[in-house]
Amino acid sequence: MTVPAAAKKRRIKNDTLYFALRNPKVVGSLIVLFLMGLLAIVGPHLTDFGVTERIPGAAMLPPSSTHWFGTTMQGQDVFTQFVNGLQNTFLVGVLGAAISGTAGMLIGFIAGYKGGWLDEILNAITNVVLVIPAFVVLIIINAYLGVRSVWMQALFIGFFSWPWVARAVRAQTLTLRNRDYIDLARITGQRNLTIIRREIAPNMYSYLFMTFVLLFGGAVLTAAGLDFIGLGPTTRGTTSLGLMMNQAVQWSALTLDMWWWFVAPGAGITIIVGSMYIMNVGLDEVFNPKLREM
To answer: Which of these, 22, 75, 5, lies nearest to 282 by C-alpha position?
Structure first.
């Protein structure tokens, strides 16, 4: 008895969801990221202080019931900075991953499916961007840019993160474009973009999802690195976890035993990036039957 294609796809999705909900790495990471995201959304409403507000007589205070994460040398509330920085960190991660993922997938699909001179041109562009020292270029761009914002930072990170995605998607597309069902779709008169969207992309959804996870973690790490060396957002009232660590180092928080100033943002970055990579390992086990723990 032949199983209809639609029923087969539903069965695959149900099996994937079943094994995903049984995988402790995936479930644990999702719970942690959900809680961190919830804190980023709700956190700014739980504090009565401003990001840069200096509270009189509250300099260098350790964590307490009034200041949950303590205060800085200037008397600024660390918890207020943390939740606002957490929000911007998620924003950079999502935007950076979305920009680089969309660009990489679009170029990879077109190059792999069309082939010929278009493939050669797109592949050449990909190779050029791939060999450019992205972090160095980001440093130069950020250093000479008058006003640096979270949005611009995400745009720059996304622009330099797509080449490896394009190469991987192109390689997968090359293996799929000559399959029988692709030839059948061409014979029925479907457009190229329709074939890519309906026939090729669904066979790669697991890989594409894992790619977004890696791009998200990479964007957060890159942004934190730029912020830590002083090339973070300069807009007044804007902060990030990396910028908090930069300020803690500048004011010798470690020497003054103000551990709460740098532990909070450092732990936030570690938890977010660590959860994303643990989730990626769990998803690999879910999508690869050979790695599943029955």
So the answer is: 22
- Tell me the per-residue pLDDT of 37-92, one tens digit each, with 9 for 90 and over: 999 999 888 888 888 888 888 888 899 888 889 999 888 999 999 999 999 999 99
Helix axes 205-228, 241-250, angle to 10 degrees: 20
Residues 6+ apart with CB under 8 A from 127: 163
Q: Which residues contact 10 (CB under 8 A, 6 or more apart)?
A: none
CB of 216 within 8 A of CB of 99?
no
**Any alpha helices (H) in 115-190, and if so which ranges?**
116-131, 134-144, 150-159, 163-176, 180-187
What is the number of helices (H) and of strands (E) in the chain? 12, 0
- DSSP label of 71: B
3-class SS of residue 30: helix
